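User: quick one, fold this
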Amino acid sequence: MELIWTLQSFDFVALLDVLLIAALLFGLSFLFRGTQAVPVLRGTILVVIFIIFLSSFPNLVAFRWLSTSIITGAAVVIPIIFQPEIRRAMERLGRAGVNFRGHTLTEYEQAIDDICAAAGKLSERKHGALIVMERGDPLDEFINTGIALNSELSPQLLLTIFYPKTELHDGAVILRGNQISCAAAVLPLSAAHGLAKRKVGTRHRASMGMSEISDAIVVVVSEESGQIAVANNGRLIRHLDSNRLATILKTYFVQSDEETRSPREIVVEFIRNFRKPDDKETVNKPKTGAAA
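Assistant:
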Protein backbone atom coordinates (compact mmCIF):
# COMPACT_ATOMS: atom_id res chain seq x y z
CA MET A 1 0.00 0.00 0.00
CA GLU A 2 2.82 2.40 0.81
CA LEU A 3 4.37 1.74 -2.60
CA ILE A 4 1.07 2.49 -4.36
CA TRP A 5 0.65 5.70 -2.35
CA THR A 6 4.21 6.75 -3.21
CA LEU A 7 3.66 6.18 -6.92
CA GLN A 8 0.37 8.10 -6.88
CA SER A 9 1.93 11.09 -5.13
CA PHE A 10 4.97 11.12 -7.44
CA ASP A 11 4.80 14.40 -9.39
CA PHE A 12 7.20 16.78 -11.15
CA VAL A 13 8.53 18.23 -7.90
CA ALA A 14 9.29 14.74 -6.57
CA LEU A 15 11.04 13.88 -9.83
CA LEU A 16 13.14 17.04 -9.57
CA ASP A 17 13.98 16.14 -5.97
CA VAL A 18 15.19 12.67 -7.01
CA LEU A 19 17.25 14.08 -9.89
CA LEU A 20 18.94 16.61 -7.59
CA ILE A 21 19.92 13.86 -5.13
CA ALA A 22 21.20 11.69 -7.99
CA ALA A 23 23.26 14.59 -9.37
CA LEU A 24 24.70 15.26 -5.91
CA LEU A 25 25.72 11.62 -5.42
CA PHE A 26 27.16 11.50 -8.94
CA GLY A 27 29.25 14.60 -8.25
CA LEU A 28 30.51 13.15 -4.97
CA SER A 29 31.55 9.98 -6.79
CA PHE A 30 33.80 12.08 -9.03
CA LEU A 31 35.39 13.78 -6.03
CA PHE A 32 36.28 10.45 -4.37
CA ARG A 33 37.21 8.63 -7.58
CA GLY A 34 40.81 7.37 -7.61
CA THR A 35 41.22 7.48 -3.82
CA GLN A 36 41.76 4.70 -1.31
CA ALA A 37 38.29 5.43 0.12
CA VAL A 38 36.39 3.91 -2.79
CA PRO A 39 36.50 0.22 -1.65
CA VAL A 40 35.72 1.19 1.97
CA LEU A 41 32.90 3.48 0.85
CA ARG A 42 31.47 0.74 -1.36
CA GLY A 43 31.49 -1.73 1.52
CA THR A 44 29.92 0.83 3.86
CA ILE A 45 27.07 1.48 1.43
CA LEU A 46 26.38 -2.25 1.10
CA VAL A 47 26.27 -2.68 4.89
CA VAL A 48 23.91 0.29 5.28
CA ILE A 49 21.58 -1.06 2.58
CA PHE A 50 21.55 -4.48 4.26
CA ILE A 51 20.75 -2.93 7.66
CA ILE A 52 17.95 -0.80 6.20
CA PHE A 53 16.49 -3.87 4.49
CA LEU A 54 16.42 -5.90 7.71
CA SER A 55 15.05 -2.95 9.67
CA SER A 56 12.04 -2.83 7.38
CA PHE A 57 10.65 -6.02 8.98
CA PRO A 58 8.23 -4.92 11.73
CA ASN A 59 8.94 -7.80 14.14
CA LEU A 60 12.69 -7.13 14.48
CA VAL A 61 12.34 -4.48 17.17
CA ALA A 62 15.71 -5.08 18.88
CA PHE A 63 17.59 -5.17 15.59
CA ARG A 64 15.89 -1.94 14.48
CA TRP A 65 17.00 -0.23 17.72
CA LEU A 66 20.54 -1.53 17.31
CA SER A 67 20.77 -0.47 13.65
CA THR A 68 19.50 3.02 14.51
CA SER A 69 22.22 3.35 17.15
CA ILE A 70 24.87 2.10 14.72
CA ILE A 71 23.83 4.53 11.99
CA THR A 72 23.83 7.42 14.49
CA GLY A 73 27.34 6.51 15.60
CA ALA A 74 28.47 6.07 12.00
CA ALA A 75 27.50 9.67 11.28
CA VAL A 76 30.27 10.68 13.69
CA VAL A 77 32.81 7.95 12.86
CA ILE A 78 32.69 8.13 9.04
CA PRO A 79 34.03 11.72 8.77
CA ILE A 80 36.94 10.68 11.00
CA ILE A 81 37.73 7.56 8.94
CA PHE A 82 37.53 9.39 5.61
CA GLN A 83 39.20 12.60 6.81
CA PRO A 84 42.08 12.50 4.24
CA GLU A 85 39.71 11.72 1.38
CA ILE A 86 37.22 14.41 2.43
CA ARG A 87 40.03 16.96 2.64
CA ARG A 88 41.26 15.96 -0.79
CA ALA A 89 37.73 16.16 -2.22
CA MET A 90 37.31 19.67 -0.81
CA GLU A 91 40.66 20.68 -2.33
CA ARG A 92 39.50 19.37 -5.72
CA LEU A 93 36.26 21.30 -5.38
CA GLY A 94 38.18 24.44 -4.49
CA ARG A 95 40.49 24.04 -7.48
CA ALA A 96 37.50 23.62 -9.78
CA GLY A 97 36.21 27.04 -8.77
CA VAL A 98 39.46 28.83 -9.58
CA ASN A 99 40.26 29.92 -13.12
CA PHE A 100 43.82 28.61 -13.08
CA ARG A 101 45.66 26.45 -15.54
CA GLY A 102 48.52 24.19 -14.54
CA HIS A 103 51.52 23.35 -16.67
CA THR A 104 50.59 21.75 -20.00
CA LEU A 105 52.27 19.06 -22.06
CA THR A 106 53.82 21.66 -24.39
CA GLU A 107 55.47 23.44 -21.46
CA TYR A 108 56.74 20.20 -19.95
CA GLU A 109 57.73 18.27 -23.10
CA GLN A 110 61.46 19.01 -22.81
CA ALA A 111 61.34 18.40 -19.06
CA ILE A 112 59.78 14.97 -19.64
CA ASP A 113 62.58 14.03 -22.03
CA ASP A 114 65.23 15.17 -19.51
CA ILE A 115 63.55 13.33 -16.63
CA CYS A 116 63.23 10.09 -18.58
CA ALA A 117 66.86 10.24 -19.75
CA ALA A 118 68.03 10.79 -16.18
CA ALA A 119 65.69 8.11 -14.78
CA GLY A 120 67.04 5.54 -17.22
CA LYS A 121 70.64 6.14 -16.13
CA LEU A 122 69.71 6.32 -12.44
CA SER A 123 67.93 2.98 -12.83
CA GLU A 124 71.00 1.38 -14.40
CA ARG A 125 73.23 2.67 -11.58
CA LYS A 126 70.64 1.91 -8.85
CA HIS A 127 70.76 5.46 -7.53
CA GLY A 128 67.55 6.35 -5.69
CA ALA A 129 65.65 9.40 -6.89
CA LEU A 130 62.43 11.29 -6.15
CA ILE A 131 61.31 13.89 -8.71
CA VAL A 132 58.12 15.94 -8.24
CA MET A 133 56.53 17.69 -11.22
CA GLU A 134 54.32 20.57 -10.09
CA ARG A 135 51.12 21.17 -12.04
CA GLY A 136 48.08 23.15 -10.90
CA ASP A 137 48.54 22.97 -7.12
CA PRO A 138 51.34 25.23 -5.80
CA LEU A 139 53.92 23.31 -3.78
CA ASP A 140 55.60 26.26 -2.04
CA GLU A 141 55.21 24.76 1.44
CA PHE A 142 57.24 21.71 0.35
CA ILE A 143 59.72 23.75 -1.69
CA ASN A 144 60.53 25.72 1.47
CA THR A 145 61.62 22.49 3.21
CA GLY A 146 64.42 21.91 0.67
CA ILE A 147 67.49 23.71 -0.64
CA ALA A 148 66.58 26.36 -3.22
CA LEU A 149 68.29 25.92 -6.60
CA ASN A 150 66.14 27.70 -9.22
CA SER A 151 68.28 26.27 -12.01
CA GLU A 152 67.56 24.99 -15.50
CA LEU A 153 66.65 21.32 -15.67
CA SER A 154 69.06 18.89 -17.33
CA PRO A 155 69.70 15.14 -17.05
CA GLN A 156 73.27 15.80 -15.91
CA LEU A 157 72.10 17.98 -13.04
CA LEU A 158 69.61 15.36 -11.87
CA LEU A 159 72.32 12.68 -11.99
CA THR A 160 74.59 14.90 -9.92
CA ILE A 161 71.92 15.71 -7.32
CA PHE A 162 70.96 12.07 -6.78
CA TYR A 163 74.53 10.73 -6.67
CA PRO A 164 74.64 8.88 -3.32
CA LYS A 165 77.66 10.77 -1.98
CA THR A 166 76.21 14.27 -2.47
CA GLU A 167 74.47 16.22 0.28
CA LEU A 168 71.27 16.71 -1.74
CA HIS A 169 70.52 13.13 -2.78
CA ASP A 170 68.37 12.33 0.27
CA GLY A 171 65.06 14.04 -0.46
CA ALA A 172 62.97 15.16 -3.40
CA VAL A 173 63.62 17.45 -6.32
CA ILE A 174 60.63 19.68 -7.10
CA LEU A 175 60.24 20.97 -10.65
CA ARG A 176 58.29 24.05 -11.63
CA GLY A 177 58.02 24.10 -15.37
CA ASN A 178 61.49 23.50 -16.85
CA GLN A 179 63.29 24.62 -13.70
CA ILE A 180 64.46 22.80 -10.59
CA SER A 181 63.02 24.85 -7.74
CA CYS A 182 64.69 22.92 -4.95
CA ALA A 183 66.40 19.71 -3.92
CA ALA A 184 66.35 17.66 -0.70
CA ALA A 185 62.69 18.58 -0.09
CA VAL A 186 60.68 16.71 2.53
CA LEU A 187 57.43 15.13 1.31
CA PRO A 188 54.49 13.73 3.34
CA LEU A 189 54.29 9.96 3.63
CA SER A 190 51.19 8.08 2.55
CA ALA A 191 49.19 6.29 5.23
CA ALA A 192 47.60 3.83 2.77
CA HIS A 193 47.51 0.33 4.29
CA GLY A 194 47.92 -1.42 0.94
CA LEU A 195 51.50 -0.18 0.55
CA ALA A 196 52.73 -2.52 3.31
CA LYS A 197 51.73 -5.55 1.25
CA ARG A 198 53.49 -4.19 -1.84
CA LYS A 199 56.76 -3.86 0.13
CA VAL A 200 57.58 -0.32 -0.94
CA GLY A 201 60.15 1.94 0.65
CA THR A 202 60.11 5.47 2.00
CA ARG A 203 60.53 7.08 -1.42
CA HIS A 204 57.47 5.29 -2.77
CA ARG A 205 55.44 6.23 0.30
CA ALA A 206 56.51 9.84 -0.12
CA SER A 207 55.54 9.82 -3.80
CA MET A 208 52.12 8.41 -2.94
CA GLY A 209 51.66 10.91 -0.13
CA MET A 210 52.42 13.86 -2.42
CA SER A 211 50.11 12.58 -5.16
CA GLU A 212 47.29 12.08 -2.63
CA ILE A 213 47.28 15.69 -1.40
CA SER A 214 48.04 17.44 -4.71
CA ASP A 215 47.81 16.99 -8.46
CA ALA A 216 51.60 16.69 -8.77
CA ILE A 217 53.20 13.81 -10.70
CA VAL A 218 56.06 12.08 -8.86
CA VAL A 219 58.75 9.93 -10.50
CA VAL A 220 60.56 7.43 -8.26
CA VAL A 221 63.71 5.37 -8.83
CA SER A 222 64.30 2.61 -6.30
CA GLU A 223 67.73 2.49 -4.71
CA GLU A 224 67.45 -1.25 -3.98
CA SER A 225 66.14 -2.60 -7.30
CA GLY A 226 66.63 0.31 -9.68
CA GLN A 227 62.98 0.07 -10.76
CA ILE A 228 61.24 3.18 -12.05
CA ALA A 229 57.76 4.10 -10.83
CA VAL A 230 55.39 7.04 -11.17
CA ALA A 231 52.69 8.25 -8.76
CA ASN A 232 49.67 10.31 -9.76
CA ASN A 233 46.29 10.90 -8.16
CA GLY A 234 47.00 8.44 -5.35
CA ARG A 235 48.02 5.62 -7.71
CA LEU A 236 51.45 4.08 -8.15
CA ILE A 237 52.60 2.47 -11.41
CA ARG A 238 55.78 0.40 -11.06
CA HIS A 239 58.17 -1.68 -13.18
CA LEU A 240 58.70 0.97 -15.85
CA ASP A 241 61.55 1.76 -18.20
CA SER A 242 62.43 5.19 -19.61
CA ASN A 243 60.28 4.74 -22.74
CA ARG A 244 57.16 3.65 -20.86
CA LEU A 245 57.75 6.42 -18.33
CA ALA A 246 57.78 9.01 -21.13
CA THR A 247 54.52 7.64 -22.55
CA ILE A 248 52.78 7.71 -19.16
CA LEU A 249 53.97 11.23 -18.30
CA LYS A 250 52.80 12.61 -21.64
CA THR A 251 49.46 10.85 -21.19
CA TYR A 252 49.00 12.45 -17.77
CA PHE A 253 49.66 15.91 -19.14
CA VAL A 254 47.32 15.38 -22.10
CA GLN A 255 44.58 14.42 -19.62
CA SER A 256 45.43 17.52 -17.60
CA ASP A 257 44.98 19.68 -20.71
CA GLU A 258 41.52 18.18 -21.26
CA GLU A 259 40.49 18.67 -17.63
CA THR A 260 41.60 22.31 -17.45
CA ARG A 261 39.79 23.44 -20.58
CA SER A 262 36.87 25.75 -19.93
CA PRO A 263 33.39 24.90 -21.26
CA ARG A 264 33.72 27.77 -23.74
CA GLU A 265 36.96 26.29 -25.16
CA ILE A 266 35.32 22.87 -25.53
CA VAL A 267 32.33 24.34 -27.38
CA VAL A 268 34.54 26.44 -29.69
CA GLU A 269 36.69 23.42 -30.54
CA PHE A 270 33.60 21.31 -31.21
CA ILE A 271 32.22 23.94 -33.60
CA ARG A 272 35.54 24.22 -35.45
CA ASN A 273 35.88 20.47 -35.86
CA PHE A 274 32.24 19.94 -36.71
CA ARG A 275 31.59 18.94 -40.27
CA LYS A 276 28.48 17.68 -41.96
CA PRO A 277 28.69 14.12 -43.34
CA ASP A 278 28.07 15.26 -46.90
CA ASP A 279 30.59 18.12 -46.86
CA LYS A 280 33.48 15.88 -47.82
CA GLU A 281 31.51 14.31 -50.64
CA THR A 282 30.50 17.74 -51.93
CA VAL A 283 34.10 18.97 -51.96
CA ASN A 284 35.57 15.87 -53.58
CA LYS A 285 32.78 15.35 -56.08
CA PRO A 286 34.10 16.14 -59.58
CA LYS A 287 32.32 18.76 -61.55
CA THR A 288 30.35 17.46 -64.52
CA GLY A 289 29.67 19.34 -67.67
CA ALA A 290 26.26 20.36 -68.88
CA ALA A 291 24.14 17.71 -70.44
CA ALA A 292 24.41 17.52 -74.22
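User: anything notable?
Assistant: Strands lie at 129-133, 147-152, 172-176, 179-185, 217-221, 228-232, 235-240.
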